[in-house]
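Retro notes (design track)

What went well: tokenization of the new backbones is finally stable.
What didn't: we kept losing track of which sequence belonged to which structure.
Fix going forward: every design gets posted as structure first, then sequence, in one message. First example under the new rule, 301 residues:
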């Protein structure tokens, strides 16, 4: 497919295949056929595509007309036969590991894929109205509604059950996720977390510091909150960046946070970069610290 890889606008990946969206709205795929590497069965429908989303084993393409086209493993989101008639006017699609959730223009939500991992929202469907955006963990979804409340569904171990904090999930501004936990920033700058405690679902140890939070960064097992004064608060698994104690005194005048799977990099106003977390994942930048000057942006894989 190399000769077809030009005018590339977007790249999406499952656990063994790639899908490329070109500027003309066409799609090119390669990799393991059974998890999305072969789209020949739906090729005629893959026209005027505006976005592609990926679970671990399937792709979902959103067309300009609001329809959705899927391919790959039927058990990980490629089978939309149950909800095909409702997949119209789709604005956005979010992917968990084995399921998808589509947000329609009218604020309603359509889900499909592995029922236990967020693919079945029947229990909360009556509340999935006036939804503004959806955030996905590995096996659950959290929908933020127009009134600032939050609706969750999916596997409890992937944070699909927010009942313990539901009363506090009001005036929510944005939701972030690790594979096993969610964090919500409220309009007043405070934070609410739920899910697996060891992977970011419990912030009680730093709750009193979580004020005036304007942004949150998530690794695969921890969160970092950037406060309005440029300081940073971390929680979750220390092996995933949940403990910034070793560099805390350097975390001042921070402007942006960037995460890899197990480490976090903070870019300061003076152009310096501070890192922490798993050394093998980018948490130890001592060898290049002298080169990390006047940095404008940080990227991670």
């Amino acid at each position: 497919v190399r000769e077809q890889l030009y005018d590339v606008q977007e790249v999406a990946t499952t656990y063994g295949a790639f899908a490329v969206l070109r500027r003309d709205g066409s799609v090119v795929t390669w990799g393991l056929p059974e998890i999305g590497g072969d789209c020949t069965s739906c090729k005629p429908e893959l026209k005027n595509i505006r976005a592609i989303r990926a679970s671990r084993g399937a792709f979902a393409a959103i067309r300009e007309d609001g329809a959705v086209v899927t391919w790959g493993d039927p058990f990980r989101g490629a089978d939309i036969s149950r909800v095909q008639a409702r997949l119209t006017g789709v604005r956005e699609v979010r992917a968990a590991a084995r399921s998808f959730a589509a947000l329609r223009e009218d604020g309603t939500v359509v889900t499909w894929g592995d029922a236990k991992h967020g693919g079945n929202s029947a229990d909360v469907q009556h509340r999935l109205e006036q939804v503004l955006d959806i955030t996905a963990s590995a096996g659950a979804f959290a929908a933020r509604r127009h009134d600032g409340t939050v609706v969750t569904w999916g596997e409890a171990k992937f944070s699909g059950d927010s009942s313990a904090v539901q009363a506090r999930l009001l005036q929510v501004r944005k939701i972030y996720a690790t594979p096993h936990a969610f964090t919500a920033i409220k309009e007043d700058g405070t934070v609410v977390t739920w899910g697996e405690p060891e992977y970011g679902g419990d912030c009680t140890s730093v709750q009193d510091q979580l004020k005036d939070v304007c942004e949150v960064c998530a690794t695969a097992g921890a969160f970092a909150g950037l406060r309005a004064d440029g300081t940073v608060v971390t929680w979750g698994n220390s092996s995933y960046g949940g403990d910034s104690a070793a560099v805390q005194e350097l975390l001042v005048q921070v402007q942006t946070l960037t995460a890899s799977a197990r480490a976090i990099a903070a870019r300061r106003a003076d152009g310096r970069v501070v890192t922490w977390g798993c050394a093998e994942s980018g948490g130890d930048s001592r060898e290049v610290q002298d080169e990390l000057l006047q940095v404008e942006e940080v990227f991670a894989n």
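Added context from the reviewer: The CA atoms of residues 91 and 131 lie 11 Å apart.
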